[in-house]
Amino acid sequence: MVKPSDYSESGNRIYTYEDKERSYMPPNYGEEGWSEKIERHFETYIGEIDNVFHEIISDIVHIDVYHIKPTQERNYHTLFTTGMSYLPMNVPEGIEGYNYAELMICLPPEWPITQEAFADEDHYWPVRWLKMLARLPHEYETWLGHGHTVPNGDPARPLSDQTKLNGVILLPPIMVHPDFLTLEMDSERTIRFYSIVPLYQEEMEFKLKYGCNDLTDKFDKYGINEIVRLNRKNVCRSSVIPFRRR
């Protein structure tokens, strides 16, 4: 279940998600043509889809993850979901236009993107997070949007053995044409696209204290974008702390 627990120092509601017992819910596979329209949108603005990692067993919504290979213009992998937007999210009163969303994550060109590579959690965690976050709003009858942060557990643990990043924030991608950010499905339903951007503990705490805008100002200052860099600079510490495998 989801509990509105407290407010952060920046004035935003903090929600706590607890596991709940429930029966299996047959997945929603989306309206005819819905996923195809999302696919065309990505191919128009990002690049040709190379592969689709189809979900074999689904619950509530059917989440597929698509892969766009690096190109000379965009030298990074793009992974994105279809399925999160098959159902509306339970948004608070007053922001009804934000109840449909899909997610993406951008990975450096050397990241292995194969079924074989995904047997290693160090390579698979971006896909796991795409699927987990895409299903979360429907599982807990809540919503996700711009500036929402999710730690990797409580207490937060590193996203993998190769990094000290231990949580994520959802942000609109910045290395795209502005028209990419939304997709009007019909006169009443618009999908918004958010990038999963990993955070360090100090960045998560800074965002809770000062708000999303102050954190993204720091990202802008240090050139942090949506491409995942496992050992990037921690913008809330004075120097880079390199990760060393124990």
Automatic annotation (TrEMBL):
It comes from Paenibacillus tyrfis. This is Ankyrin. Residues 61-233 form the Suppressor of fused-like domain. InterPro entries: SUFU-like_domain (IPR020941). Pfam families: SUFU.
